[in-house]
Structure prediction request, 293 residues.
Amino acid sequence: MRVFVTGATGLVGSAVVAELIGHGHTVLALARSEVAVTVAEAAGAQAIRGALADLEILRAGAAETDGVIHLAFANDFSSADALAKAIAEETAALATFGEALIGSGRPLVTVSGTPVIPGRPSTEADPALIEGPVGGRGRAVTAALGLASRGVRSSAIRLPRTVHNKGLGGFAGLLTNIARQRGVAGYPGDGSQRWPAVHALDAAALFRIALERAESGTSWHAVADEGDKVRDIAAVIGRRLALPVESVAGESFGPLGPIFMADQPSSSTYTQETLGWTPTHPSLLEDLENIIP
Prediction:
């Protein structure tokens, strides 16, 4: 299968490209810079120059391939306005992919986040988060899944708050970066809130499986660790960086504060049983031992 991949040179995207090529697929990768073109081509993909905002390029990429895996996102959490802009850009991109694929029966695999369900781990049967700082992403994905009724084999891989590889990535990676900047490995509140996690290589395998055989309109959980306490995550970060570990105000994390404060464990039991996906790579706490001081 020839697959159009956005975000192909990111932490998750590079793992997905390797997974696809390793299983006999070919990849057309969206690349927004010459550096990205070089990286994509070195990985064995064909690169097409463009950004997520270039809707005509997205439409052309979808038209000339057998399916789409959408992973790109601006990841600008510096302010509420910046986050809203990134969500609007992704929403337009998903709508464009949908228009290009209607009636084709081809797959559109997009990325989402595991929802927050008070009092228990979220499951694949729970609805997407459509309110709050990142609710717009949930609304865009819900619309994409609705294209199942219009001849698109759409599916969503719900990623946990931390997708990691070699100690980098996700919200744990953000905590690491913030710790370096502030000189303190901080965690919001009492740190008892739990964050689910998955290794990027395990997540990549699930994207490939969904591309190949997920049913239309379905959501799947790429979760290996159901929920690590944030204070335990901060403890490893602090030890690796030789920094004090302490509670800090949730507000100090800006627009991500409410998300960082939430208890958000998640299960992937249904995904593992139904699709035969089995995580095999290091857990988050094990992988954070790779943080370079």
User: Anything to note?
Assistant: The longest strand covers residues 107-113. The chain has eleven helices and twelve strands.
